[in-house]
Amino acid sequence: MIAPHTSTKRISLLDIVVIFIMAGLLYYGASWQIFATNTDAAKYQCYTRAFWHGTSSLNIFPPGQCNFLTHPSKQLIPIPHKELVKKLTDVGLPSGLVQFVDGQSPSQPYHALPYEYPMLTLVPFTLSLLVPMHFFQIAFAFWMLVVAALVYLVLLRWRSRRAAIVYAFLLIVGGWERWPGALI
To answer: Keyword Transmembrane: yes or no (predicted)?
Structure first.
């Protein structure tokens, strides 16, 4: 025998109820901000659109939603594009490389990456593009609920039902902790 006998935990009605209550409470707690233009999910929508279609496509959003991309602050961009090209030339890098860097523009598709997130964050952001653009934030909330349910099921399978229920409780408390402060 290579591995000891492990008991498989079955998903019970209790687990299904906990997952649906968790999802319902998390969605209800975030529902007040679903269509707001100043939320994190609205930023993710801007990042996703800018990456796949270029920053020139951001004019479809309400005014101000994507200002952080169209008019970035100096703290977000460590070195302006023209200054970067000049420094590359001054260092003596090959002109082909300098011209390649000079030809890159965030207004082109596949060139605008998130400032404060790694490139792989575009994967969950992009999943939300499977629906029409005005439902992006609802789709993003749905995918986050799917992730929360999957974590619950992983805890149930490889830890215990108690750990999974505690996770669901703490996730709800943590998610709702922000809610009262956001209304002030």
So the answer is: yes
